Amino acid sequence: QVQLVESGGGLVQAGESLRLSCAASGSIFSIGTMGWYRQAPGKQRELVATITSGGIATYGDIGDSVKVRFTISRDNAKNTVYLQMNSLKPEDTAVYYCNAYITVSGYHWPARYWGQGTQVTVSS
Question: Which of these, 34, 37, 11, lies nearest to 23 by C-alpha position?
Fold first, then answer.
């Protein structure tokens, strides 16, 4: 019924930028908070950032440099959330997952949905 599809990952060199996108589609009544998580090999999935439907952004406890280098935003008209990543570092290498709380048409409560993930690899 609902899909989250990420795009924008890839292989870049340290210092370069990437912009991830995640578009929600399907029988959507409303979308609440959306966010990005990441999981590096051998590590637990960690929160990168979330953004409410009103545009309030919160960044995860993964280092002050991430808050400076990464920016989350969303376009409610397009049901899309973005993650702009600047000055990428090798330690940013991970699979990045999109997440959203979506209320499906005909239902009263939101459910949590995940995208399939997009690989970001930063070479030194």
Answer: 34
